[in-house]
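Let's practice the habit of predicting before peeking. Look at the sequence and jot down your guess about where helices and strands might fall. Then scroll down.
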Amino acid sequence: MAAYAAFISLKSTIHHFLKYYDICLTLPSLKMLQLLYNQVESFEQFLNTSDSSSRKRMDDRFHQIAMAMDQFEDILLIYKLEPSERAQSGGEIDGFLDLDHVKQAFDAITASMQELQAEHAVVSPRDSSGKLVGLFDQYNQLKERIFLCRFVISIVGMAGNGKTTLAEEILCDFDIVEMFESRAWVAVGSTYDRRDVLLLILAQVDPDACAMIGAEEGDREISKYLERSLEGKRFLIVFDDVWDVDFWYNLEYLLPNNGDGSKVVLTTRSRELGDGAEAVFDMRLLSEEESWDLLRHKVFGEEDCPSELVKAGKKIAEYCDGLPLTIVAVSGLLSEADRTLKFWNEVAARKRHWLFLAAYDGMLEVLYPSYWSLSLQLRRCFLYMGVFPQDYKIPRSKIINLWIAEEGLLDPITDQYGQQFLFGMIGLEEFNLLRNTPEQVLDLENYAVEYLEDLASKTLVMVHQKSTTRAVIRRSWAQGIKTCGLHSSWWHLCHREATKRNVFYILTSLEDGVGEDIKGQTTLSIHQNVLFGIKDVYESMVENCASSARSLLCFGPYHQYQVPVCFELRSLQHLDALNIRFYKFPLAATELVELRYLALTCNGKVPPSISKLQKLKFLIIHQHFNIKFRGVSSYLPMEIWDMKDLRYMRIMGSDLPSGDSVLPNLSKLLHVSSHSCTKSVFEGLPNLRKLGIQIELTPFGAEPPTYFDHISLLDGLESLKCVVVNPDFTPKLIPQPSLPNFPSHLEKLTLTGLGCSWEEMSKIASLQKLAVLKLRSNAFRGPKWDFKEHRFVKLEYLLIEDCDLEKLEIGDESFDDLQYMCMKHCYKLKEIRVESELAISNIEIVDCNTLAEKQIKKAMLRCNRLIHNFSVHSSWMKS
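Done guessing? Here is the structure:
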């Protein structure tokens, strides 16, 4: 329908001007634009909810309003021109003088709509059909995207989240039917025949032509029939449930694309396939309210839900985690079960109720194809994620470190199908030597990152929090996963498969700890840490798993009181007890000589006997509530230098003592104190890539800081984070630090609370590989930073947070590749001057002076450039 397309186009144009040109408009013009935008939204809603008879009665009116909107868009386009060009086009300097005429047309159509709405009860056909409940915002957004995209759009989402249902509803939508003369639906699946796909399309757009196709005619001939049948017609083809990443590549050249507004829609579970389309539409999960609406609709239909069941019903719907497939499965079982308050309360009381488990079992047929499509290695990594509790938000670093520590789970010497191809050639000893070299350690992490992002791109792993920083460096669709997890349905599948294959064993109750199933288990995942305090469970672990257990992972709720962790599992290779507090370092842990991974929360010193753990690769020590007495240093023992296999150390505020040895494999050293920044320490870390320093300023200190004096010795360092934990910028304290010549390979630099002078920025600008720069909590101080004096060759991400800047000047050659700039809590910032056409696509301003926002917009307009994503967040403004 032409009118609907006109609405969408105008809505997009007005939104664009409100976002980027508001500072250049007069207040009356701004108010007029906002009023028109609101009316367009109202008209669009009416279009989406009115029936066909109402629309036909409005055809003449819609034609009138479409003409008025075209005129209005012409005015906006004239206004975007430079003044000289605007004069040549005959436009006024204030392009909004003629808006009264457009508003009159809107007022007339509004009155007509109100009359029709009074005559006809407006009910969405999607509600009455029961096919689509909730996701109406996505329904409308998808319609807009289809009208606005060039040719191909993909709908991406996890299994069972309503992609097919949404696409079916869109295909039958009134506006879609009016706009596209020919429509076709093809269910593709994991296996397909290209000839059959073409025939299915032809059978729907031209049955007579399809009947003429002979068995000997191939793809090219059928393609010609399609081209003739669709000539002069605008078509929409939906390819549902596409699995093959090359599907569209293999089909695109066989379908006509004459630029006449025809569209192709793909639905897929794979983001990798979606990225091949011109536009990607991400399906979200249902909200709690939408989940309850769907569950209530499925259980009770047109009847009202008894009031006494509403509270329990909403809790049950919440437990479905927004996945329509789960809600439908659960509601089906609820419909067949006893509809009493007692039973519904039982189901609502716990997420592991048998009804949920039965629902998950019923969904396996839909979920398993995604699981079996994974390579062998990806399958193993995916199953391992099930060791975490249901709904657990997994930090990216944690899952990657555990994957790396698990011998054989990741191997750098593998091909893409997970087959070791050198092991048989060079033998076990040589293979192990090779996989422990620093270069292979880096490969292990790269493999782990790629596997995690691959699982997320296939929508098996949910991304809870994203890191824009990693997106800049890696160009990842997931924008650099920060925290992730499994949907409950996938967690159930992992648990089921892991139990079947003895991959891991979960302990959540007394029964789990003393039952027969615990015998001979290799990986024990404790989801209730208090089980260690139960004598029967403790003894059962020792009796049944003393020789078999390789991993003991304690992921239950954090306990501030110590429980007797089972250190008698002598074959342990991985021990994660961060969620349990030890009053001091447990000496029994140093007897577990097979350990590769050790994570503890404890106060006190690490004993020299830790050097017994010669196979240890990951050492993570947290302090309980970060308790540390002033002036009391927490040193690691000198024996730490004897642990040559160490790859990763995170030791909260502890000091690494100076030694005369080398840790050849250590690539990451995090949260170490500034007292560790000595020449002998840095000389002993030849392959360090990532360093995190905690700096604690001493009161009344008169000497300048020395923690950067030897940083240049780390010539392979790629990431550096320096945090002053107690910054104080009073004049009587230490002078402003002078920055060193940083290692030349540095790609990421984070500075917090240093209080440096902006003149020191020249030493950072000289870093030829620096891509990410984060400046937090007055890392630099002073009212003015003149970028014109510095040139950042490779910088792509810049964060400035909590500083006293008042003026920022960016010169013609300040940045070559800046993609993302974020300003946070810069309350004094009043002026931003830009003298170049920045190739920047994202600017984010959070809780800054409102003048900064206007300055950025003006700068971009002067450069005749629009920012792809400009966002402003102000906590003092209404949401």
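How did you do? Residues 841 and 868 are 5 Å apart (CA to CA).
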